[in-house]
Amino acid sequence: MGCHFIQGAVDKEISRSPEFGNMNRHTKFQVLGRTRGGTRFNYDKGIDVEYLDIRLTYLTDAEKDDIEDFFNDESDGIMESFTFRDHEDVDWNVKFVNATLDFTEDRDSGWSIHLQLEVVS
Fold first, then answer.
1. Residues paired with residue 51 on neighbouring β-strands, in sequence order
2. Is 69 helix (H, G, I), strand (E, B) or coil?
């Protein structure tokens, strides 16, 4: 089963599942430093962020165009949240992390892309 990029009535389906499934990463916004005297200090901003790292491979030209169109028109790059439905039919409310889509053309096998999505509430 593939995955979907959804916002409102727009549903862009990608026929292949993400390679290796979804990688789920949690990040804490914390600072680590040293005082002039060498004493260690750390500060926790109290923010936890969850990311999905997704690699899509063997994309057709049409699927590549669908992702580009969705990025430009529905999510407005990194500005708007949307629903990402993964290969296990789990819906994630997300935003694109990067303002650039970097597709790689794979020799004789279509396109691939690594996407980072921030899970938002």
1. 25, 118
2. helix
Element (H, E) at 51: strand 40-59
Q: Which CATH number is associated with domain 3-119?
A: 2.40.30
Domain extents for the chain? Answer: 3-119
Three-class SS of residue 70?
helix
Q: What is the mean pLDDT of residues 111-115?
A: 94
Rounded CA gap, 115 and 68, in Å? 12
* H/E run at residue 94: strand 91-96
Look at 78 and 30; give whichever has higher pLDDT: 78
Show the DSSP H helices in the chain as ranges: 61-69
Residue 2 contacts residue 60 (beta carbons within 8 Å): no
Residue burial 39-60, b: 16+ Cβ < 10 Å; e: rest: eeeeeeeeeeeebbebebbebe
